[in-house]
Specification:
133 residues; alpha+beta; four-stranded mixed beta sheet; 56% helix
Length: 133
């Protein structure tokens, strides 16, 4: 039952990705709150990486990871944490503290699927070239 609820939640988030008004890229999914982030972490069993970790995992640049997100080839869950007590802080502390911080998490399964797709396209291209000879 818990798995079904998580699966439904993940499907609902994927529908958000299709909604054009909320995305800088086709693979971007904005999380509304920390609870959604916790559910995502539970669903993927912690198998998520930051853009830097994803770049290292694939052996590409971080810019390439963001391009894959924009193109919708991988999903990127984005969460913006806001400091609710910002107005209570003294001015001198506001200069030192970021008001919002953004976290980006990319599922490892998406990265592995992309790597497999690239590998298969390369293999198909090689086979095609060998047949021409």
């Amino acid at each position: 039952m818990v798995i079904r609820k998580l699966r439904d939640f993940i499907d609902e988030l994927d529908n958000r990705r299709v909604n054009k008004e909320n995305r800088p890229g086709q693979g971007t999914i904005w999380l509304k709150n920390f609870e959604e982030l916790e559910k995502i972490a539970e669903w993927y069993k912690g198998g998520m990486l930051s853009p830097g970790g994803a770049a290292s995992h694939l052996g590409v640049s971080r810019a390439m990871i963001h391009q894959l997100e924009r193109d919708g080839k991988i999903r990127a869950y984005r969460y913006i944490a806001e400091d609710k007590d910002w107005e209570k802080l003294p001015f001198y502390l506001k200069l030192l503290i970021e008001r919002k911080s953004q976290a980006i998490y990319i599922p490892i399964v998406d990265l592995d699927k992309y790597a497999e797709d690239v590998h298969n396209r390369g293999r198909a291209r090689t086979t095609k070239l060998q047949k021409k000879k």
